[in-house]
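Justification of resources, computational component.

The compute hours requested in this renewal are based largely on the per-chain cost of generating structure records like the one below. Each record pairs the submitted sequence with a full structure-token output. That output is archived, and it is also reused by downstream analysis tasks.
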Amino acid sequence: MTATSLLRTLLRKDARPVALRLRSHYWFATFVIGLGITIDMLVYSIVIPVFPYRLESLGYSGVSGLVGWLLTSFSIGLVVSTIPIAMLSEKYETRAWPLNIGMLLLIGSQIMLMFAPVYAVMCIARVLQGIASSTVWIVGLALVCDLTPKRIVGRQLGFALAGFSLGLLIGPTIGGVLYERFGYNGPLLFGIIGSSIDLVFRLFIIERKEALKWGIDPASEKNLPPADTEEKAADPSAPADTLVHAAVQSTDTSATPKQELPFLKVVLKMVKSIRALAAFFLTLQQAFVFTSMEPAIPLHTTAVWGLNPTQVGILFLALSLPTLVANPLSGYLCDTRGSEWVVAFGLTLAIPWQVVLSVEGPLALFIVSLAVSSFFVASSMTPLMSELATVSRSIEGVGYAHVYGAFNFVYGIGSALGPIIGGQIYDHVERGFLAIMLFCVGITVTAVVQAFFFIGERTLARRLKDRLKVRRDATSSSLDTTPETRGDSEHTQPPLTI
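The structure output for this chain reads:
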């Protein structure tokens, strides 16, 4: 087959798509969206080390504050674009086109940043990057949920979210190396090349609605490997009626048209859901905890242990590396044990390590504490996203893009407030880093309480209440039967013989 005939086959709407099963498979979608998140975070972070030098070369002073506003510009684009992208994606029931347009916008913003002659144009480019980022975080994660059987949504989201840590891990390091070798345009060219590769993969994705036209349902339970099916079937924590409901829902989704709701009704429906509200509040809190330490860690480690900027950059690996393991692992545990267990225990185990972080002891202790606390805090994010996917399936008219749009909006607010408040506390309090960590401990404690009472189809509070009720009933039943048993034994006892 020549290239021309292959292209015609790909473009024909009435022809069966080439490699249909592969291109609509949930593992392919997970890989592509995970790659998209990696590229998104890489593009976000690769220019952070080089921004100060670029601004100085353009003749600006006070570059530290200017760099802060460049980071804020990204968050502004992220927040303001969230609602329109989520609503349009659900209204037109499409995932591919928003993803592709978002990637083209990301490439264009990097070109704009490359040739920006003044600071204002750089800020506009960063706003456009934030808008492009919204597409992969809202539409991309919704696509993964569309194509994934309900039983393993948490696991697949965990693998996709590993790209978040990977992008932040390699971005600043590569950015510094490329800047030293090729100058300011080097990191941006690298980001453009990575974005172009990501765009090619996105063009090959086939949505579920297209696959259904050819008799293939990627989200069907039949596509699960035997290991996943047997493991879930043997899991006593998954009620039978829940599994039946999930199976029925996965087959009926395509047949039942979605109810289109206006924006305010969608918001009201989500606000009425206690589980959704709890997930959003926890997301806000954990985003704040993650980002509030970022501006203070370089200053604190330099003041206490005398680290230089290169050593501080290496130290940040302790903040990013553990999340590479935490996200997939917590997603797997979420599917097998339930999101309520993972969120509550993960945040509980993070608290003592956050306390240790405030101690000015050996540097090795600080690094270990930073890594372990980062691992446990990050372990709550994937279960929260899986929780939102479950909520969207239980509310008529609310889709995956709606809940992940709200997640993106809330996370953007938390990540914007965290550095500002954390930086102000560090600058204006005598022992600033200690105050930040105690503040984070207080937030995490409240998050544990929320997770205990409100996360999960059967919350930990409800499980404890039912367990205590069973014990109480068993105790009262045994007390009630004791006299009768005693009386029967007295009547049936044989007489003494002498």
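The two ends are 108 Å apart (CA to CA). Residues 231-257 have pLDDT under 50 and may be disordered.
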